[in-house]
Write a structure and sequence with these properties.
The chain is of the alpha/beta class. The protein has helices at 30-38, 52-65, 84-96, 111-123, 137-143, 181-198, 200-208, 218-238, 253-262, 269-286, 294-304, 315-322, 351-362; strands at 4-12, 17-24, 42-48, 69-75, 104-109, 129-134, 148-153, 156-163, 168-172, 328-329, 332-340, 343-350. A seven-stranded mixed beta sheet has the order 1-2-9-6-5-3-4, sandwiched between helices.
């Protein structure tokens, strides 16, 4: 790779091997990296209405220089468009472009785009190759790695989907320059989560040097992204299809998804995860499941990044959305409990126990 400060993180699961390339100024290498990893004659770049005007031209030029025939498929940006109707339109455009089973979909954008393009690739012709080119910090550190793809249903987030690992991931941190500070801040929720999950040193570093601070340069950002990818890689390698260990990546998500859905997706995913993580930590600490003082450390990490640490939603509202989450198993829910910074456990809790966690952790009224 010719990009400066480049990191290559290998992902090796029982069904897939691929590299995650993280660096500064590597967007123009997408074509050569996709050619090496996926081959094929044609490449369909799938992007949204925000990202396509910024980067689709460069990515298509890179792909064409690598010998691909290209087309561009766009859809309206935003979580509220992560629906089957959007997916159907994407699939129709792939068919009209006459992509074959040997060709490749290139997902160019944030987490919504990665999910939509990945799911489309998993369904079109019963599965074609996909490459992920994340342009948001949230997608770089989380959703572009691991092969999860999904759409939202009326009943909840990511309830319909499939596993399809990318053939390659290319994360150019220079793309983060076009993110608003608000979106960059939102993404930091997943980074705080990863520190709590598995890396006390990362956690300590981001409290002292917040990721969204103006002083964070591209080389530092690339290093942080790569470390987050390694954390997720290690979990995915051990549990590809979320049968056990991989569920720990849902730290903060049981309540986070509920908070996000209840806001009609007006509150960002990373912000929702941050609030959910703080709520769970406070609730489980008061139940004696979490080390004393841990919740306050997590709150401080979120506060350092300008992330929310609570919600004004009622217990009743949170429970209504949380019980529709895909992590529910009949009358129980798998809850990821932060025992201390760097160590979590997976705990099967009854709905009554979950409600107690919410009641103790959020401290909001019943109304």
């Amino acid at each position: 790779m010719s990009g400066q400060d480049a990191h290559v993180v290998g992902v090796h699961t029982p069904t897939s091997d691929y590299d995650v390339h993280v660096g500064c100024g590597i967007l123009d290498e997408v074509g050569s990296l996709v050619r090496k990893a996926a081959g094929g004659r044609a490449a369909a770049v799938i992007s949204d209405s925000n990202v396509a005007p910024l980067y689709a031209g460069r990515v298509r030029s890179s792909l064409e220089a690598a010998g691909y025939q290209t087309c561009l498929v766009t859809f309206p940006a935003g979580e509220r468009n992560k629906r089957f109707s959007t997916l159907e339109n994407i699939l129709e455009e792939l068919a009209q472009a006459e992509l074959s089973r040997d060709d490749v979909v290139v997902a160019l954008g944030g987490g919504v785009c990665g999910d939509m393009a990945g799911l489309a690739a998993s369904l079109y012709l019963r599965g074609i190759n996909v490459a992920q080119v994340p342009t948001s910090l949230l997608a770089m550190v989380d959703s572009s790695v691991g092969g999860k793809t999904a759409v939202d249903l009326q009943s909840g987030k990511n309830l319909a989907g499939a596993f399809l690992h990318p053939r390659v991931v290319v994360a150019d941190v220079e793309c983060l320059h076009t993110l608003s500070h608000e979106l960059l801040t939102d993404s930091c929720g997943e980074i705080v989560k990863h520190g709590v999950l598995a890396d006390p040193a990362l956690f300590e570093h981001i409290v002292a040097c917040p990721v969204n601070a103006p002083s964070t340069d591209d080389a530092q950002m690339a290093s942080i992204v790569a470390q987050n990818v390694r954390i997720k890689r290690d979990v995915v390698n051990a549990d590809e299809h979320e049968r056990g260990l991989r569920q720990t990546l849902n730290l903060g998500h049981t309540l986070g998804h509920a908070i996000e859905a209840a806001s009609d997706y007006q509150l960002g995913h990373g912000s929702s995860v941050a609030a959910g993580l703080c709520c769970v930590a406070r609730g489980t600490e008061r139940l004696g499941w979490t080390q004393q003082g841990c919740a306050r450390l997590i709150e401080q990490a979120c506060e350092a990044h300008g992330l929310p640490t609570n919600t004004n939603l009622s217990v009743r509202t949170i429970m209504r959305y949380a019980t529709h989450d895909k992590k529910r198993h009949g009358t129980t829910v798998n809850l990821v409990v932060p025992e201390r910074i760097g160590k979590v456990s997976l705990r099967s809790v009854t709905l009554e126990e979950l409600e107690e966690v919410v009641r103790l952790g959020c401290g909001m009224a019943e109304a």
